[in-house]
């Protein structure tokens, strides 16, 4: 499995259409067996609709655990991460009982720190 890197260079994200185009590229990479790293470093703000179209749809289609295993988010500012987390929580609340997004994120962070310490 290869890791594909995607950088979003825009600073303000709001369009579902642009998020859908980006999501399609990510879904193609995942379908080809690769994992994905999304660099949100330049992003200052992201609307709920943009985050839902990209991250919410991915979580709904992949399931939370598979999403956490295959998709990494890098460089995101705290307000952008909060928007993504809120969208993820809403999507998960629409479905069956699933683990909390924040708990899985913390688990993944602890695992990655453990690997880095070795």
The number of helical runs is 5
Arrangement of strands in the largest sheet: 1-3-5
CATH fold field value: Transcription Regulator spoIIAA
Top-tier CATH class: Alpha Beta
Helix content: 55-70%
Average pLDDT, all residues: 87
- CATH architecture, by name, is 2-Layer Sandwich
**How is the main sheet built?**
3 strands, parallel
Instruction: Categorize the overall geometry.
Output: globular
Instruction: Extract low-pLDDT stretches.
Output: none
- The percent range for strand residues is 15-25%
End-to-end CA span: 22 Å
Order of helices and strands: EEHEEHHEHH
As a whole number of angstroms, the C-alpha radius of gyration is 14 Å
Strand tally is 5
List the domain count as a whole number: 1
Structural class: alpha/beta
How would you sum up this structure, described in words?
The structure is a single chain. By secondary structure, the chain is α/β, with parallel strands linked by helices. The protein has a single domain (3-117), classed as Transcription Regulator spoIIAA (2-Layer Sandwich). The protein is built from 5 helices and 5 strands. It has helices at residues 16-31, 48-62, 64-70, 78-94, 101-117, and strands at residues 3-7, 12-13, 35-39, 45-46, 71-74. The chain has a 3-stranded parallel beta sheet. The longest helix is centred in the last third of the chain and has 17 residues, at 78-94. The two termini are 22 Å apart. The mean pLDDT is 87.
């Amino acid at each position: 499995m290869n890791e594909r890197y995607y950088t979003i260079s825009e600073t303000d994200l709001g369009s579902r259409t642009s998020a859908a185009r980006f999501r399609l590229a990510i879904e193609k990479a995942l379908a080809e067996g690769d994992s994905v790293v999304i660099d949100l470093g330049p992003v200052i703000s992201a609307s709920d609709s943009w985050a839902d179209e990209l991250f919410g749809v991915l979580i709904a289609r992949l399931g939370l655990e598979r999403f956490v295993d295959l998709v990494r988010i890098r460089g995101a500012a705290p307000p952008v991460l909060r928007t993504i987390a809120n969208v993820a929580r809403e999507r998960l609340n629409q479905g069956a009982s699933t683990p909390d997004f924040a708990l899985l994120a913390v688990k993944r962070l602890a695992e990655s720190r453990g690997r880095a310490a070795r």
